[in-house]
């Protein structure tokens, strides 16, 4: 076969594209392939493919889609954290003559992949998953506003994650940092496939995230139960609303920046190049006008989780509900006015830097107000220190330190000194781990019994808790210290041997966090093993205050047999205090959306399009794009999109579900 024909079929994909000469990658591939084959074999042996396809993959039920988002996030957490362990090990040994086990190019790929995966494919899916599962239940809705769009959003996110994973074994990933800075990400400096993998995976996943955000905002505005005014919504719904409004505002900027960078790489334009009128700094502006609000897209729902848990486990209404709502809205607006603090060092001048420095300090005020609201809720409350509440306390102690170092970095002269040091990296992990990750674990522990009908194993849950909390402080305190000394970030080797003890301690901290991650996985496994002992028969295991606890665990497909009518904030607490009894009859048929396979098929074609564009397989890209158009148009002719659950079936379901609850 001629070289020309091979190139027209396989583009730039050759045998050299496979990392057969890289022992670390080859070993990883063998392990992943073995696990994948074992999973495939098990699903085939137990004949689960049909069940998964009909009940999960094609499902438009917001609860199942939320669970799938969380599963995706946990799987990608294991991948992203393995990158973190390799970086920590490299930095602990690479001093003086010892170059470590990762050469510079490979190390750059690993820290790029770590940041990309942890934000786009761990934090976002976990946040979106919890919002997806909980918010419609708290609103008293049967599903989200656009059920099919919800399914498509998930599968596009999953397709982006798969494309990132493919880059581990076919070609290489970007080595340009987790936001792939121009001009380094341009064709002149990065001609390999890495940046293309990065761009296509994030464009595909980004479309999914944007569509999901539109869906969630529409759900809050249009799907609230009768009587639930905006100021009677649970705080979690408010934070989810603000988070998703922010996502709608910012993701188009990121999409546009990536699209222009694609044009630079594919057709030779000069938007972000160093020559011919290009402006790399414009890329930084477009990326960070997404990047800083994105931190709040993640942390606002976490704040909502802390609010729900604090209120539930203190047995009190949240202190200052109105101020909490206003603080959330103020954070949403101000988060759009602080992005330039990510490059005070670019030389914009004192006026610009002063404005953004002051704006960054001001945003700490509503965030601080939230901390005081939670503290005042706890004050004189009957606090139950169960596992979700432990995560809340750990968050307060950890996140406040990250907030203070953030205000320090908001001062432009201080940032000039610290910007390119590990101090900034420690600050970022302080707020993301202490704020977002702790909140996500709190939320998963809190709502797990609602999703599956049994609690997580408490012993392993506490192992996870202490592993994360102790591990965080051991891993990142020394990084704060060496950063304050001026140690540079993004480096795989150090010359000064006096720094080595700090990095060894940091590596030990990462291993303690690994114990926390494995502890969480074990809490799920052992929870399943001991599910009969941990079973929740009441639907309300924590004595909750919001509507999701008014239905059974797990909830039926239709969520509520009758749409609840709301009279007060903390609707379920209000109903319990008024002596609410479940209806015994009078059921009516319930209108529900029908499952569809269009979402997973469209996402598969998007994945194929991305892979074809990365490797210059133009025929594959063209066929995939044509397939996307055909399937999307064909789906518009699918008129069998809904069905009714008969009243008899609803009555039977309700009687079965509520018999144990009555006994309990």
UniProtKB/TrEMBL annotation:
Record InterPro entries: Cyt_c_oxase-like_su1_dom, Cyt_c_oxase-like_su1_sf, Cyt_C_Oxase_1, Cyt_c_Oxase_su1_BS, Cyt_c_ubiqinol_oxidase_su1
Cytochrome oxidase subunit I profile domain mapped to chain residues: 47-567
UniProt keyword annotations, A-Z: Cell membrane, Copper, Electron transport, Heme, Iron, Membrane, Metal-binding, Respiratory chain, Transmembrane, Transmembrane helix, Transport
CDD domains the record matches: Ubiquinol_Oxidase_I
Localisation per UniProt entry: Cell membrane
Ranges that cross the membrane: 24-46, 67-90, 110-134, 154-178, 198-221, 233-263, 283-306, 318-340, 352-376, 388-411, 423-447, 459-482, 502-529, 597-616
Pfam families recorded: COX1
Membrane topology annotation: Multi-pass membrane protein
Source species, domain of life: Bacteria
Chief location bin: membrane
PANTHER family: CYTOCHROME BO(3) UBIQUINOL OXIDASE SUBUNIT 1 (PTHR10422:SF35), CYTOCHROME C OXIDASE SUBUNIT 1 (PTHR10422)
Family named by the database record: Belongs to the heme-copper respiratory oxidase family.
NCBIfam families: CyoB
Name of the protein: Cytochrome ubiquinol oxidase subunit I
Source organism of the structure: Sphingomonas glacialis
Phylogenetic classification of the source organism: Bacteria, Pseudomonadati, Pseudomonadota, Alphaproteobacteria, Sphingomonadales
